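REQUEST FORM: STRUCTURE PREDICTION
Request ID: SP-0412
Submitted by: Lab K.M.
Chain count: 1
Length (residues): 331
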Amino acid sequence: MRFLFFLFAIPISLAAYSQEYVNHKEVGSTYIKQFRNQLILKGYIQNKSNEFDITDRKNDVVSNYEPNGKSTFGIGFNYKSLGLSIGFLPMGKNNDVKYGKTRKFDIQGNLVTKKIGADLRLQYYQGFYLSNVSSLDPSYNTDSVYPIRSDIATLSLAAEVFYIFNHSKFSFKSIYTNNEWQKKSAGTFLVGLNYAIFSIGADSAIAPEVPNYKPDSSDYFSGASFFNLGIYGGYAYNLVIKKHGFLFVGAGPGIGAVRIRLYDNEGRQVSNRVRPAATFKFQFGGGLNSDKHFGGITYTNNSSGFNYNQGEGRFNFNSGTFKVYYGYRMF
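STATUS: Completed
RESULT:
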């Protein structure tokens, strides 16, 4: 069965930021410095990942599929409540013969206030390759070409909202939007809700074709849709090093429920169940900050996983973003 999606070529990231801010007379004034009235310009190099794996648990066979990804150069600005970042220039080129060609549309946005944060992701990818073929078939030569599935397409829409408990001392904006500067080390507990819709489709069963392995049709599918709703909690900490350096890490495990619909080659629905699901969010960053100049790296990964059918199969999905950036606060 073939799933049809709208196709776009230019990855764009949008971000909107609240006008709410910390009063300097409050306790947070010694922890957070504001730049909300300054024009902030920055350039960045960004790489996004969007991969999934399917496990035949009876035979302990894991097949991992990845897109042929490329880095992107972009520019962005912030001023008061408005922020915009656009990635428009691909950098480098992976071998389309070896890894296949991936077409994608990837847009991500976020909203950050003093107490509340929210993220939204819309991602479409078509064209994947079997990245772990060597572990499935040790005799396979990956020097020339990987097994390519140009027919596999995925579409995901995910949203989350979270509460920042220590909002007077801890600043997410200092890490991601750069219109604040964390002056003293601080951490915070987080609690949030997440919702995700994920669909995947192909012309035939999404199963590895390797010697000495015959896939069981009950463990694989040609199309599927997943609807996930869950909660998560976690902790984030920003360590300030010698006034201008910082090191940030955050983690948030979660639980929820997912409705799973599976389809065969003819488009017939063969399964419709609700299963428990696990999620995990990991964030990391580091860099330098000052009144005018700032720069650093950030990495964010969102993962989810659940069993399907009678537990014979398992599906895991990972979406990540790695960014290197440098910016200047003008006036």
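NOTES: The chain has one domain: 12-329.
Reviewed by: T.R.
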